[in-house]
Write a structure and sequence with these properties.
Length: 129
Amino acid sequence: MIKKSRQREAILTYLESRKDHPTAEQVYTAVREEFPNISLGTVYRNLALLSDLKEIGRVTCETDGSDHFDFDTSPHQHFFCKECGAVIDVPLRNDDSILRMLEGSLGVSIETQKTIYYGICRNCLSKRA
């Protein structure tokens, strides 16, 4: 059991209020309003700890390597915009039948999976028009 921390609680509260999957730098900027002396390193360590404890999700964008953090730890997929970097939840149900079929054909036990879609978001598409 980890010791409670007001800074960690502020990080969790901030993430709970967001649906846009902020980066550590965005979390740092927001939490600094309440805790002006918090360091970026403290935010990174707390995000890593919360992610390791499965209290938050971490979504890594393979195109630029940035980590985005998600309060929603339920199984779901994400969409990354290649232009603006937005991370959007994809409202598709995970299909366990595909996982079971893969387990059977590969002879493995799948414990988790991530599906990430890449493309251009609605806002960036409308700017192009």
